[in-house]
Each structure stands twice: as structure tokens, then as C-alpha cells.
Design a protein that fits this description.
11 helices; five-stranded antiparallel β-sheet; globular
């Protein structure tokens, strides 16, 4: 479906099978790159008839894997793919703040290994020196995996995370400086960080341009911004189509190299490189996350369980990309 539409200003129920009773917690949004409200519908909404505020609150957490039910659109102006209408920001943020997610932090060891490997490569390519004078900010740090990897690498790192439970976990488990809330809650000093990262975070944020502008303000003149995101232009998405595992209701935006560069540029940042991102997690966990999409993995999971090899590390890429950026030269 690609009928061109303009998002209405007052009616949040726009197309698809959205029940009228859900109108009070569904909202519209314009494109954050070009500000256009015109779009082409890629897939209509598929809201269940019994959708409630409580059922929505259970979806928004770090390991949230609820299949996409919101309307997916493509901006008529710049081509950005995003949800419109979407679940209200108030519900999403409240859910993230109150989320308790032991399933996610069970895989922290694999994430820490992944981030250490990534940091080693970035340090070599962009001259990041292992020093406590090198300041790192991780936005949406969850249970602190990247903050832990950065500290172990010899850097001085802090994390910001909406989930109070996640912050407490990272502080208790690793002794990290994790601060509960969102970036807007903290008045951080301008040009105070050498590295700022958003790992699987930007696609969840309702106002990504505002966050990136604040990152630009917080970065030192030669600082690096690292953003990891599910790439709508990836081979995995094109091959798997609607079975792509990253088509989730918790993902508000679906960037491509073109649109992520455009958004960064709008916020005073220049993309230096965009490359595939490979993550290492337990084999059993990867199979478990893939099972709802492919029946084969249910059988494979049983074999892995019988063989007792579910904890083996599995390095994979399902369409994730990583962009490295700096402030524009004029800044």
C-alpha cells in the first residue's frame, strides 16, 4: 500500500485496524528530518481489538519483541521510514522507566565481549586513548554493558538509562556510574565528552533530532558519536521482508544510510563511516528470539537444548549497522 496521506492534526486514529477506544493513547508525528507530515503507507496498523494501556506498558523494555502493530510509513519528503500514528510517548517512557528485564541482562557477558572488541577497533581507527581522562557517555545504557566495557578498556564512562531497575542492576553488579532518567533530565556540561554512544537506542526515541543536537553540544570538538541501529536498507531486511526481526512496535524509526546521514547533518554532525555491526550473544538466546519468526528455529532450539550447547557464543548480524560521526567542521 503506498497511498499518499497527510497526518491529521487532531485525529490520532488514522487508517489501519486501530480500535476507536485506543484513540486516547495513540499519537501522530511528523518527520524529524524534513518536518513533512505527508507520507506513503507501507503497512497499515494492526492493533488488536482489546488493546489497553496496561497491555502496551508491558511491551516497552530492553528485550521487547512485540511484533509490529503500528502503521509503518515512508516520508514523502525525504524517504524516512517511521511509525505514524504510534503509541504515545508518555506510555512508552513510563514503560521504559518501570521496566524490569532480567532476560536482557542475562546476556550482558556477550554484550560486554562485543563492545570490548568494537572499542578496540574504534580505538585503532580513531585514536581513542585508553585513559581515565577520556570521557564516555552511553545514552540508554540498559544494564551497563557498554559502560563496563569502556571502563575495562581504561576509559572513564557514565551511563544514562530510564529503567530504575536496570540502573540498580549495573551499579550493584559492576559498580558503575549509571544515572536513572533521560538525557534531558541532566544538565551536563557542554563539550565534556570524547565519546557518546547510543546502542540500539535512537530508533526508540520519539524526538531523535533533539537528542542528537544535545549530543553535538556535549561532544568535544574532536569527539566521536557512535550510533548502532537496525538498518532498513540492509540485505537482511530486504530478504526477510516482513519477517525481519527488527519490525517491532518499540522501534519508532527505521533508518537507512541516507536518512541517518541526513538526520546527523541536520543536527550538526557528520557521518565518517557506516558499517555492519556484529553482535555476540548466547546461541540459545539468539535461537529463542528467532523462533517466533521461523518454525525451523523451534526444532533447532530443541536440538541445542538436548546437546547442552545453548551457552555457546553466537556472532551474528541481522541487519544492524553502526555509524561513527563527528561534529561538522564549522563547529
Amino acid at each position: 500500500m503506498n497511498n499518499s496521506q497527510v497526518a491529521p492534526e487532531t485525529n490520532p486514529c488514522n487508517g489501519g485496524d486501530q480500535p476507536s477506544s485506543s484513540a486516547f493513547f495513540i499519537e501522530n508525528g511528523a518527520c524529524p528530518i524534513c518536518a513533512s507530515s505527508a507520507y506513503d503507507v507501507l503497512r497499515a496498523a494492526r492493533y488488536p481489538a482489546n488493546l489497553t494501556r496496561d497491555s502496551l506498558r508491558s511491551m516497552y523494555h530492553s528485550s521487547g519483541d512485540h511484533e509490529l502493530m503500528d502503521q509503518l510509513v515512508s516520508c514523502s519528503g525525504c524517504g524516512l521510514v517511521y511509525l505514524n500514528p504510534r503509541v504515545s510517548q508518555e506510555i512508552a517512557l513510563s514503560s521504559y522507566t518501570n521496566a524490569i528485564d532480567p532476560r536482557f541482562v542475562e546476556q550482558n557477558d556477550g554484550r560486554i565481549r562485543t563492545f570490548k572488541r568494537t572499542l578496540a577497533k574504534l580505538a585503532h581507527e580513531y585514536s581513542i586513548k585508553p585513559s581515565k581522562t577520556t570521557k564516555v557517555l552511553d545514552i540508554g545504557c540498559a544494564g551497563g554493558a557498554f559502560v563496563k566495557a569502556a571502563e575495562d578498556f581504561g576509559l572513564s564512562a557514565i551511563g544514562i538509562e530510564p529503567s530504575a531497575w536496570m540502573c540498580e542492576y549495573g551499579r550493584d553488579k559492576y559498580g558503575l556510574d549509571l544515572r536513572q532518567g533521560t538525557l534531558e533530565d541532566f544538565k551536563l556540561e557542554a563539550e565534556s565528552f570524547d565519546v557518546i554512544s547510543l546502542w540500539d537506542v535512537l530508533e526508540h526515541i520519539y524526538a531523535p533530532a533533539e537528542i542528537l543536537r544535545e549530543c553535538e553540544r556535549l561532544l568535544k570538538p574532536d569527539g566521536l558519536l557512535i550510533v548502532n541501529y537496525p538498518d532498513y536498507d540492509s540485505v537482511a531486511r530486504k530478504v526477510l521482508r516482513w519477517k525481519w526481526p527488527f519490525f517491532l512496535s518499540v522501534h519508532v524509526f527505521y533508518f537507512t544510510p541516507k536518512t541517518i546521514r541526513a538526520l546527523l547533518s541536520k543536527c550538526g554532525l557528520q557521518a565518517l563511516a557506516i558499517k555492519p555491526f556484529f553482535q555476540t550473544l548466547d546461541l540459545g538466546y539468539v535461537i529463542q528470539r528467532a523462533t517466533p519468526y521461523f518454525r525451523f528455529f523451534k526444532w533447532l532450539g530443541q536440538v541445542v537444548s538436548v546437546l547442552g550447547i545453548g551457552s555457546l557464543p553466537c556472532t551474528y548480524n541481522m541487519g544492524q549497522s553502526m555509524v561513527i560521526a563527528r561534529k561538522n567542521a564549522r563547529n
